[in-house]
Amino acid sequence: MRALVRETHLDPAQFILPLFACPGEGVRREIGSMPDNYQLSIDELVKECAEVHALGIGGVILFGLPESKDEMASGAYDDNGIVQRAIRAVRRETPELLVVTDVCNCEYTSHGHCGYIIDGDVDNDTTLQWLAKSALSHARAGAHIVAPSDMMDGRVWAIRQALDANGYEKIPVMSYAAKFASVFYGPFREAAESTPQFGDRRSYQMDPANGREAMREIELDLQEGADIIMVKPALAYLDLIRQARDRFDVPIAAYQVSGEYAMIVAAARNGWIDQERAMLETLTSITRAGASIILTYFAKAAARVLG
Ligand code: PBG
Asked: Looking at residues 124-144, what average pLDDT do you find?
């Protein structure tokens, strides 16, 4: 009877699994603060993607750890960069799997910030050019969706122009529209080796206190041409997922970020919480709040349970 009257259902097809591509061969390095998640060389990442596809998961989002980093984030928009090569390999081996790419510079800059630094702060408009070039190089490599996560102003428009001008008008933009300067990204920064070397990201990411501003950020991204919008993190921002759902008739994604994952797994490993139930309860709540797409490190585990 409970099943009959249940209002919210989970489906593996709504999940996107974040994956981290790294140089080398046969590399499968577990991320300390994110058990069961790995930095994967491209050959290993391709195998992982085959498994993801077999589990009926909606897709993957790719992040890259470049060979070397510099002040210009050159690795981000290099047609032979780590993510570009990973995209080509995945598209070749699992052509049916949806490939999303994270478009940002923080994994590629020597200082770990999301853009070009002038006077100790990120310069918005120079950064837009890098982002447009990165998104275009991802599309050229075969990405199905590009997802800018940098939070520069005007980046959706800049990316849309670059894609359209080069024959990629059919590639959608999933925008990290309401992305907060959150403590919950800590484990990710270990995974992606992208911790800022000075300062923090508060000059471009949002203040957790500001819900009205989040709606404005989403509205602007939609005006600039975003096709899917995202709220990030998820659990601490369920109210904003709900508000966005009620206000905007576009697909809404939520990112259950690294720290949300790490908290559940750490508590479970201490015997303080049941991991499977915590996973399903949080994913159900994020869905109930209004997200139809969830980026989550639990994608495989949840798909197995739901399978
Ligand atoms: C890149 C980016 C970050 C995350 C996704 N894209 C890190 C950050 O903004 O510092 C975080 C994801 C997570 O914590 O799981 N800008």
From this structure: 97
Give the distance (Å) from ligand 1 centre to CA of residue 61.
12
- Which pLDDT score, from 0 to 100, does residue 203 have? 86
Mean pLDDT (whole number) for 112-118: 92
Question: With 90 as the cut, is the pLDDT of residue 162 above it?
Answer: yes
Residue 307 confidence (pLDDT): 85
SS3 252: strand
- Ligand 1 lined by 188 (C-beta under 6 Å): yes
Q: Whose CA is nearest to atom 7 of ligand 1?
A: 185
Residue 121 counted as domain residue: yes
To the query of whether residue 232 is one of the catalytic residues in this protein, the response is yes
Residues 6+ apart with CB under 8 A from 83: 21, 62, 63, 64, 101, 138, 141
The verdict on the CB of residue 258 being under 6 Å from ligand 1 is yes
Q: How far does the chain reach from its first CA to its final CA, in angstroms? A: 20
Pick the closest to residue 22 from 51, 36, 42, 37 (CA basis): 42
Q: Is 244 in the pocket of ligand 1 (CB under 6 A)?
A: no
Q: Tell me, yes or no, whether 1 lies in a domain.
A: no
Q: Is the CB of 149 under 6 A from ligand 1?
A: yes
What is the pTM for the complete model shown? 0.97
Residue 47 is a catalytic residue: no
Total number of domains in the chain:
1
Residue 168 lies in a domain: yes
Q: In which domain, by residue range, is 124 found?
A: 8-306
pLDDT value at 146 more than 90: yes
